[in-house]
Specification:
- This protein is an alpha+beta fold.
- It has two domains: 2-34; 39-140, Immunoglobulin-like (Sandwich), CATH 2.60.40.640.
- It contains one helix and ten strands.
- The strands form three sheets. Strands 5, 6, 8, 9 and 10 form a five-stranded antiparallel β-sheet that branches.
- Strand 3 (42-51) and strand 4 form a beta hairpin.
- The radius of gyration is 20 Å and the shape is elongated.
């Protein structure tokens, strides 16, 4: 009985380890293990926000598609945490006729709140496309 349990446990560990490596890209970045989903067309995607001491928020979204990607687009939302929920206060739509999209814009925000960026990015390859939603960490001002 004990031998069967140990064997079953080892099999479960092996299966879960294999599944994790198949379903995710595991990379090491500055001594941190970063796990990200594997995509068909999206190679890299990131959303960030930086707010300076004057309330100037810099909103950034990056998207890189693989060599099959012919165009990219993003809907970028600057959101404010108010009254217990996130509310969009500014939206940008950006597109590129290449596999790379680099978006950066600024917007002055009000003090006393938390802010974040949420971006819906899409990579196109012919009639196929792939999308994901990115959410930055929040930053107070």
């Amino acid at each position: 009985m004990k031998k069967k349990f140990i064997t079953l446990l080892l099999v479960m560990i092996l299966v879960s380890s294999f599944s994790m490596s198949v379903l995710a890209n595991i990379t090491e970045l500055n001594d941190e293990v970063v796990i990200s989903p594997m995509f068909t067309y999206i190679s890299m995607a990131e959303a960030e926000i930086f707010i300076n001491s004057s309330g100037k928020a810099t909103v950034e979204t990056y998207l890189t598609g693989n060599s099959k990607v012919t165009s990219t687009k993003a809907t970028i939302k600057l959101q404010q945490y108010r009254g217990g929920s996130w509310t969009t206060i500014k939206t940008w739509d950006e597109s590129s006729n290449s596999r790379i999209l680099n978006f950066s814009s600024t917007y002055y925000v009000s003090s006393g709140y938390e802010y974040r960026v949420q971006s819906i990015v899409t990579a196109y390859s012919g009639t196929q496309s792939e999308s994901t939603t990115l959410t930055s960490s929040s930053q107070g001002y």
